[in-house]
């Protein structure tokens, strides 16, 4: 039986199995009753008719952070998405590297952005805004509020005290009204003495009238002037009485 792999009168010449075979992007290698296509770089398949792409292996971090662009033969380039860099876009850009968070804020790096965790008293995208702690009016009684960082100070109106000026100072506590006169506080920071009929003055310190029963005496504080004028008005049913006056230990008397 004649072998199909040889030809010629004496069957000594091998049959070229590559005859009529198109290996497209490759070279045909003759075999024994068969052939093999040896493909050029970038191609595959029995007849080297399938073009390979370097992007088939997803070199750009599984195409999650970049777009892969194939360039024959078997070359590629990665176009990184925002927030990534590197040949295969596998490196996350650290948006916190420039220390964008101000005034002691902590920076948290995210994809293509950052988030600042601000320290107490600060707000804003980069913690650049001092929170107005006086905004809600914490100081009572129209007292002045001074904003600080994460705190405030109250400058109290007259008559008020306490951190928030919410404590009323008792102006009557020191008993400014004399002779047991009644002290009242009409509004914070003020007081008023309610004097009885025989007293007058801001503190009821002036005796304006007195009832004298029997033998009674009145005394005045020492005076520096050598000449003084004292005026008395009497309302009495008696027709007359004696009035004694002592000045510098010298006594005087007269009928009134």
UniProtKB/TrEMBL annotation:
Residue ranges occupied by any EGF-like domain in the UniProt entry: 14-49, 51-90, 92-128, 130-166, 168-205
SMART domains on file: EGF, EGF_CA
Record-annotated disulphide pairs: 18-28, 39-48, 80-89, 118-127, 156-165, 195-204
Pfam families listed in its UniProt record: EGF, EGF_CA, hEGF
Keywords, ordered alphabetically: Disulfide bond, EGF-like domain, Glycoprotein, Repeat, Signal
Domain of life: Eukaryota
Signal peptide stretch: none
Gene3D superfamilies (UniProt xref): Laminin
GO molecular function, one term: calcium ion binding
Coiled coil: none
Name of the molecule in the record: EGF-like domain-containing protein
Organism from which the protein derives: Bugula neritina (Brown bryozoan)
């Amino acid at each position: 039986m004649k072998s199909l792999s040889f030809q010629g009168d004496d069957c000594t010449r091998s049959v070229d199995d590559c005859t009529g075979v198109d290996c497209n992007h490759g070279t045909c290698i003759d075999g024994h009753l068969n052939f093999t296509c040896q493909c050029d770089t970038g191609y595959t398949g029995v007849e080297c008719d399938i073009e390979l792409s370097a992007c088939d292996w997803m070199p750009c971090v599984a195409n999650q952070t970049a777009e892969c662009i194939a360039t024959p033969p078997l070359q590629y380039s990665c176009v990184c998405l925002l927030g990534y860099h590197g040949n295969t876009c596998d490196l996350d850009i650290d948006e916190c590297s420039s220390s964008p968070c101000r005034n002691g804020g902590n920076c948290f790096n995210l994809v293509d952005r950052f988030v600042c965790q601000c320290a107490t008293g600060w707000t804003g995208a980069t913690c650049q805004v001092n929170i107005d702690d006086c905004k809600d009016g914490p100081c009572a009684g129209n007292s002045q509020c001074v904003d600080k960082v994460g705190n405030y100070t109250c400058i109290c109106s007259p008559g008020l005290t306490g951190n928030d000026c919410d404590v009323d100072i008792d102006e009557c506590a020191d008993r400014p009204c004399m002779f047991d006169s009644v002290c009242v506080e009409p509004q914070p920071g003020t007081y008023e003495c309610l004097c009885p009929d025989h007293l007058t003055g801001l503190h009821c310190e002036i005796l304006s009238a007195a009832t004298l029963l029997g033998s009674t005496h009145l005394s005045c504080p020492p005076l520096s002037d050598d000449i003084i004028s004292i005026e008395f008005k009497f309302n009495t049913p008696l027709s007359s009485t004696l009035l004694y006056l002592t000045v510098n230990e010298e006594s005087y008397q007269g009928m009134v």
